[in-house]
Design brief:
Strand content: under 5%
Radius of gyration: 24 Å
Distance between the termini: 41 Å
Protein name: Transposase
Structural class: mainly alpha
Oligomer: single chain
Shape: elongated
GO molecular function, one term: DNA binding
Helix content: 55-70%
């Protein structure tokens, strides 16, 4: 099985970004000191420069728009909806009769 992904809080990410920006350490030096991969430091610095501290927040699992979830590509026409619901009803009736 794969390795579990580790998440880091904003405070930890900010410390890594500060070591890179304020202390002038390189990506690899910061990564070695903090015990993480240098690609994480690069990503955090990029996000911090683009969005500030807000860019260091957790982004996974948060819907971005008012319509939560994946939007439909086409709205379902009424006739297709009726057919689908009738088929569901028939299936449920058969299951209840068993």
């Amino acid at each position: 099985m794969g390795e579990m992904r580790r998440t880091y809080d904003e405070k930890f990410k900010k410390k890594a970004v500060d070591l890179y920006l304020k202390k002038g350490l390189g990506y690899k030096s910061v990564a070695r000191e903090m015990g993480i991969n240098d690609s994480l430091v690069r990503r955090w610095v990029k996000h911090f420069e683009a969005e500030g501290v807000k860019g260091l927040g957790e982004k996974r699992g948060k819907a971005k728009g008012p319509g939560m979830g994946r939007p439909r590509t086409r709205p379902e026409d009424p006739e297709a909806k009726i057919k689908r619901l009738e088929a569901e009803n028939e299936m449920l009736k058969k299951l209840l009769q068993m």
